[in-house]
Design brief:
The chain is α+β, with helices and mostly antiparallel strands and about 450 residues long. It has a single domain, classed as B-lactam Antibiotic, Isopenicillin N Synthase, Chain (Jelly Rolls, Sandwich). It contains 16 helices and 16 strands. The strands form four sheets. Strands 1-2-13-9-15-7-3 form a seven-stranded mixed β-sheet. The protein has a five-stranded antiparallel β-sheet with strand order 11-8-14-10-12. Strands 4-5 form a two-stranded antiparallel ribbon. The longest helix is centred in the first third of the chain and has 24 residues. The chain binds fe (ii) ion. This is DUF1479 family protein. InterPro entries: Gig2-like, IPNS-like_sf.
Length: about 450
Amino acid sequence: MTAPTAPAGTSQPPLPPLPHWEEAPADLPAAIRQVKAALRARIAASGRTVEEVFGVVERLVRAEADDVAAARARGETVWPVVDYADIEAGTVPDEQVRALHRRGCLVVRGHFHREQALEWDRDIVGYTERNGFFDAYRGPGDDFFGSVGSKPEIYPIYWSRAQMQARQSDRTARVQAFLNARWKHESEGIRWFDPGRDSLYPDRIRRRPPGTASGGLGAHLDPGTLDLWMTGAYQRAFRHLFDGTVEQYDPWDAAHRTDGPQYPGTTMCSAFRTFQGWTALSDMEHDQGVLYAVPIPSAMAYLMLRPLLPDVPDDDMCGVTVNRVFPVSERWHPLLLEAVAGIPDVRAGDSVWWHCDLIHGVAPVEDQKGWGNVMYIPAAPWCPRNERYAAAVREAFATGSSPADFPAEHYERSWPDRFRPADLNATGRRGLGLDRAGTEPGRG
Ligand SMILES: [Fe+2]
């Protein structure tokens, strides 16, 4: 890779380049030592110390964490909430747009009518029961969302009518376009993604029954692991963290995020998502083991710089490694975990969204009241990375297979009543890249 040149009008020499690995390195400890030394050297060459740069981030995050804690103490809902009707009408109040920008997360009330969502929930039950899913179920196909017992909580089901109808609906397209527009998607003469076109990223379903006792899911990060420090594209995306211009780091800048490779792993997401999200298929109370986030988008800068401080062993990235979820821990990130904020009560048909870099997890619950049912549907706008993955999605859709990002379980291949190509509308065809490619979808 090439190092950026000095700013115009200065005589500073170029900063030293960073080593990069476009595939996961074979010797991880050696590569971590090498990239950490290079990152430190690069920051030092900018005229600032790692401690100074980290201090800037820490003060910013501290102020946000204090604000979240104060809002929580006042009993306020930390997550911004908007009505779907305002998104459709283009009348979301500026104050709520600003709150979304600050917190990086959002609840959309009435994204779908409650009756529609409840009907979809029943449809999914019918779909799985008619096709003998619970007899065929072989247990968790990965080690991250695994659940104990004969019935799963996460259903590796992708192609039900309910899911596809929700993914290709105009209402979802409007919400996704609203969310995508929060990002800076054009810079350096490049349009990094198309905010008005989603790539229809197929994901799973969660159905958690009443009475569940669950330990929850620890705080973690979704967008990558060691690749965040080690690929050329991510090093460019996080350039301001590594070249002494940390004040210019913008968590909403999509530059260099939509075309790079990702290291493989059980929880990898090949797509670029502006927001991860789910749509509620049941009512859920805020204290029944629901999603929480650390609603501070710039906390990503903290996570990226923290391993460079001298108290972290040279071959350790604060516990981040390939094939494991990116952990956020009391040991390395206690400040961030002070700012945990759970979602408010939601009703079936509401949707919940969080910036792709937001730390999140699921709270534990004992004897859960009511169901906890969701369809995972993110905002994954059309871009080179998502266009590449769309080819794999088309293939999985045509054959009823599990998509390439997920364990190869393929339960739906022989299910006759899955969603069919003839059921696609224009949004669905565009999302799969069918109209643009002119490909006939009729293979399944
Ligand atoms: Fe996650």
